[in-house]
Write a structure and sequence with these properties.
By secondary structure, the protein is of the alpha/beta class. The protein is built from six helices and seven strands, in the order βαβαβαβαβαβαβ. It is 39% helix and 16% strand. A seven-stranded parallel beta sheet has the order 3-2-1-4-5-6-7, with helices on both faces. It is globular. It binds NADP nicotinamide-adenine-dinucleotide phosphate (NAP). The site of NADP nicotinamide-adenine-dinucleotide phosphate has 27 residues, from helix 1.
């Protein structure tokens, strides 16, 4: 078992599960710096209030994961300021957006190229580009991890209900990327473990329009999920690289 330590980047950290992870990580004695990114990281009241007690242990950076330039700038800042990363957690995800009329498709006729594009850019391309620019920071002689929040609905073999085309397909693509990156990491970064994680239905802005039929005991708080997922990451080693695990540490079929 390895502990969570060093410098850990949480991207998608301004609210929901990402914010709860930042809070959990700051409570870990051996974590030196938590880097919290989101489009609104420097203006997020929640992150700024955490910063009041965490001081320089919390570094907030604005980064839109649909813009490679932002990701590149973040990696450059981290290379100059903290030299290496011991963990990256990709949290940002999109399912719906009232400002653009994006909502999960019920029927094939609902497909909209602009919404498909957004889902792929946030849910899949984002983590891929974070890997591209942070790989050099994660490749060193200490244990490190690269974990991405996926979703069970991205599982192809577990898809019995249909619908939610863009979200399902973009998470399935993210999963394939995770597996592919795990294979490369095995060859090129022997201390790096690469994981896909399913949080379970969690009470956040992302799930709020879809909670009506979820039994109370199956709707988790962000704090609970952040704790469970970080414990799972903590308990993994490089031998687990390439696995897709849920909040209960159970394997999710690809
Ligand atoms: N909640 C659930 O029930 C559930 C279930 C299964 C899987 N998941 C997955 O878990 C992850 C976290 O979900 P959540 O429920 O915590 O979502 P959330 O409350 O909507 O938070 C999403 C976070 O992502 C950031 N974000 C969104 N678009 C971004 C972009 N283009 N660039 C940078 N950051 C961006 C948001 O910050 P800004 O708006 O400030 O950028 C926010 O911090 C997602 O990947 C989701 O697919 C959630």
């Amino acid at each position: 078992m390895t502990s969570l330590f060093g410098n850990i980047l949480v991207q998608g950290a301004s609210r929901g599960i990402g914010l709860a992870m930042v809070e959990e990580l700051l409570a870990e004695q051996q974590v030196d710096t938590v880097i919290a990114t989101a489009r609104s990281a420097t203006t997020s009241e929640s992150l700024q209030s955490l910063r009041q007690s965490a001081g320089e242990r919390l570094l907030c950076l604005d980064m839109d994961i649909t813009r490679e330039h932002d990701i590149q700038n973040t990696a450059k800042t981290l290379k100059n300021d903290i030299k290496r990363l011991h963990g990256v957690i990709n949290v940002a995800g999109i399912l719906h957006d009232a400002s653009t009329g994006m909502s999960p498709e019920k029927r094939v006729e609902d497909l909209d190229p602009a919404h498909l594009d957004t889902a792929f850019r946030v849910n899949c391309q984002g983590p891929m580009l974070v890997a591209k620019h942070c790989f050099a920071l994660l490749r060193h002689d200490q244990p490190a991890f690269f974990a991405s929040l996926s979703a069970r609905v991205g599982s192809i073999s577990d898809n019995h209900l249909g619908g939610w085309y863009s979200y399902r397909a973009s998470k399935a693509a993210q999963n394939q990327f995770t597996r592919t990156f795990a294979v490369e990491a095995r060859r090129r970064a022997r201390n790096l473990r690469v994981l896909a994680l399913h949080p379970g239905t969690t009470d956040t802005r992302l799930s709020s329009p879809f909670q009506r039929n979820v039994p109370a005991e199956k709707l988790f708080s962000a704090d609970f999920v952040a704790r469970r997922l970080l414990n799972i990451v903590r308990d993994t080693s490089v031998e687990d690289s390439g696995r897709f695990l849920d909040w209960d540490n159970q394997e999710v079929p690809w």
